[in-house]
Amino acid sequence: MDQKEVYHLLEQVKSGEVSIDQAILDLKEAPYQDIGYAKIDTHRGLRQGIPEVIYGAGKTADQIIGIVKEMTAHHQKHIMITRVSPEKAVHIGDKVPMIYHKLARFGQIGEMPEKSGKGRILVVTGGTSDLPVSEEAALTAEMLGNTVDRLYDVGVSGLHRLLDHLDSIMNARVIVAAAGMEGALASVVGGLADCPVIAVPTSVGYGASFGGLSALLSMLNSCASGVSVVNIDNGFGAGYLASMINHI
């Protein structure tokens, strides 16, 4: 149950369509649903403004299907499933109407919602190898009601590619910068933008990149003010935070 649903419920009580006792019961049932292998936080949409998201890695396809069915039974219209393998996606898609974004390993239940963000979110990547993480960020932000622009393969090894898109950088309200290797993209973007920059280190790179640790440390030590950092490969977290900023 989210904030809109609570308003609707209260309007129904006011009009006499729903009794006070029924409304109290609906609100009591809101916090979570225990389905054995998962306790679904159906109260999160009301509490935080954004409903629960399903983390697909480590869950079986049948478990994901069960969680989705329970969420939809409680009127959740837009559901995100992150880190879903193509094999699981086939099985899930046979049971529930899921749109699968293979590159991002991202499952989408329901259509994209209406845009409610204040401005535009720009997702920037260093290279094509960073696309799975950046697309996870972009899709997350879109599923949370934001207009998202994508600016891909503009890493610092060819700085002119980035500088050709200064208008996009200047017009963004929030920027997500995803890069592996040495992770310098976030500092460069942070030095050009007048909005918050969310840096996402990716696990792309040769041996001494240590699976994204090198990029993570570089981004944490950025000399550009206004740059914050999420965990390695955490495109979802970056897209979620960008949406929160864009809705303030």
Automatic annotation (TrEMBL):
Organism superkingdom: Bacteria
Organism: Pseudoramibacter porci
Pfam families for the chain: AIRC (PF00731)
GO biological process, any: 'de novo' IMP biosynthetic process
Residues of the PurE domain: 119-248
Example of a GO MF term: hydrolase activity
SUPFAM superfamilies: N5-CAIR mutase (phosphoribosylaminoimidazole carboxylase, PurE)
InterPro entries: P2CMN_synthase_LarB, PurE_dom
The protein's name: Nickel pincer cofactor biosynthesis protein LarB
